[in-house]
Amino acid sequence: MSEPIRWLDWAAPAFEKAEAANTPILLSLVTAWSEECRVMDCTTFSHPDVIASVSSRFTAIRVDADRRPDVNERYNLGGWPTTAFLTSDGELLSGGTYLSADQLITMLREVADAWRDRSDEIRSRAADKRAANVPVIGPHAGPDVSAPAYVRALMVSGFDPVNGGFGVAPKLPHVPALLLALSLTSEEEGTADAELATIVEVTLDRMSALWDRGAGGFYRYADAADWSGPGIEKTLDDQAALLHLYIEAAIRRGSEDFRSRAGEIARWVRTSLADGKEGGFFNARSGDSVDRSLYVDRNARMVGALLRAAALFEDPWLRDLALQTFETVVLPGYSPGGGVAHAPEVRGLLTDQIQVADAAIWAHAVTEQLPYSMLAAELVQFSIRTMWDDTANAFRDRTNPVDPVHPFQLNCEAACVLDRLASLTGDATLHDRAVAILGALASEYRKRELFGAPYALAIREVIGRRPPASLALTKVDWYLDRD
Predict the structure, then answer these.
(1) What is the spatial distance between Cα 402 and Cα 399, in angstroms, rounded to a whole number?
(2) Domain 147-463 classified CATH 1.10.540.10?
(3) Would you say 81 and 97 are in contact if contact means Cβ atoms under 8 Å apart?
(4) What is the pLDDT of residues 297-326, one digit of tens each?
């Protein structure tokens, strides 16, 4: 039996080894909870010919996409697993997602032979290709205030009136789009949008097919248009997003069914993902197994969702659970002036600063305790100081300025967080910066079709002054250092 592939970590020694040996890199992007990743390990990566080719002609690197979202942002090719070929200095050559042993053996041979014969040409072409594909964002005439209407039209045209949701198969919850629909159908608009109301009601009802009727929890997606054939994975991130969605729907639509579903999500998370010993929530469940990783950004998202649920249900125990998670999982990775860590030995990522700042704003709104808003302000200022790109008018995804990436959805979320903090602090420059972000992204959102909904949602909040239901913020009585 062949020895398994010796995967290296994403770190300088791996790239130094590839450079010294003049080999291309085989990058395997996986998650601990993905069934397809497990199957590919048991079949493709266990095939003797794959092992022999990788061991002799490549430098093999494996990355957990949840642990290193910055690496995932740069190299994900459409899901997990992602199997990518890189130059020894990290430029993407080619790749795919799940590959059978025969498919990978063919690709390994083609890439290795090409590298042997013309590595210099391949390096140059890969660098040129990356430069050509970098999204152009930067100063713009201003935010596109027509975005909500544009995304509304996409929802109407793509709506599946029989099964709910959008498009055909596979089906997945489009949470930002549905949140936008709920915002546009709120009573404060003065006119009812019956078409969007129907889309919301039908979709949230049919989407219940993703709910595990036996064990509880929402699956991530369904293979079929009628929401049948769900996967087996349930992630903390998805539960937090859907809890926010059903709470918003319960408040804006006055629906007892949506309120009940929100309660079911909160109960499942606290019984099936909660770390009873240390506090906090595990990353995912896949069948009977659990990814027990505790990631700060995902826990922060769940903190915000549970705080909203606690307010909706007037449940002090749920509120205490959320605040305990904030204290036991989020704060231990905090360093004064240095932001919060994503996980042990992984620091300097924008996602953690923005999600923790958002959770702290929700905690302030629920408790009226000033330390939460002060922490939110410090993390935002840390992000501005270390990750703001003046040329792009947007945030980079990490403090390391090499190979900058300006993540679309995260920058949309950051604009909302900055604007909420502006309401708390009275610092108008934060609102101005949020507007600048939306101006910078104005030419990007339409390229993403319905996945551009986070931009339209941010336009509603930052420009249209339409925050999430129940989020009421008033200026706090402390001074924010603007230097």
Answers:
(1) 9
(2) no
(3) yes
(4) 999 999 999 999 999 999 999 999 999 999
126-132 mean pLDDT: 74
pTM: 0.94
What's the rounded Cα separation, in Å, for the pair 403 and 28? 20
Q: Which two tokens stand for residue 8?
A: 């290296």
Whether residue 41 contacts residue 6, with contact meaning beta carbons closer than 8 Å, is answered with no
Where in the chain is CATH 3.40.30.10? Answer: 12-133
Phi-psi region of 337 (alpha: psi -120 to 50; beta: other; left: phi over 0): left
Assigned token pair, 158 = 């793509």
Residue 261 corresponds to which tokens in the numbers above? 């579903």
Residue pLDDT, tens place only, 91-106: 999 999 999 999 999 9
Residue for token pair 């909160």: 266
Say what the pLDDT of residue 483 is.
46
Helices (H), 163-235: 175-184, 194-206
pLDDT band at 135 (very low <50, low <70, confident <90, very high): low
Distances in Å between the Cα of 303 and the Cα atoms of 14, 286, 407, 422, 453 are 37, 22, 23, 21, 23
Write out the residue limits of the CATH 1.50.10.10 domain(s) in the chain.
147-463
- CB atoms inside a 10 Å sphere around CB 129: 12
Helix 236-253 to helix 256-272 angle (10° resolution) is 160
Say if domain 12-133 classifies as CATH 3.40.30.10: yes
Query: What pLDDT sits at residue 136?
Result: 59
Helix (H) or strand (E) holding 248: helix 236-253
Question: Cα separation of 62 and 333, whole Å?
Answer: 24
CA atoms within 13 A on the CB side of 172: 13
What is the C-alpha separation between 384 and 433, in angstroms, rounded? 10
- Structure tokens of 64? 């957990």
CA distances from 285 to 34, 128, 215, 355 (A): 9, 41, 11, 22
pLDDT at 134: 62
- Cα–Cα distances in angstroms (integers) from residue 42 to residues 47, 50, 295, 323, 356, in the given order: 8, 12, 27, 40, 37
pLDDT tens readout for residues 22-75: 999 999 999 999 999 999 999 999 999 999 999 999 999 999 999 999 999 999
Helices assigned H by DSSP within 32-160: 35-42, 48-57, 69-75, 101-133, 147-158
Q: How many residues in total does the chain contain? A: 483
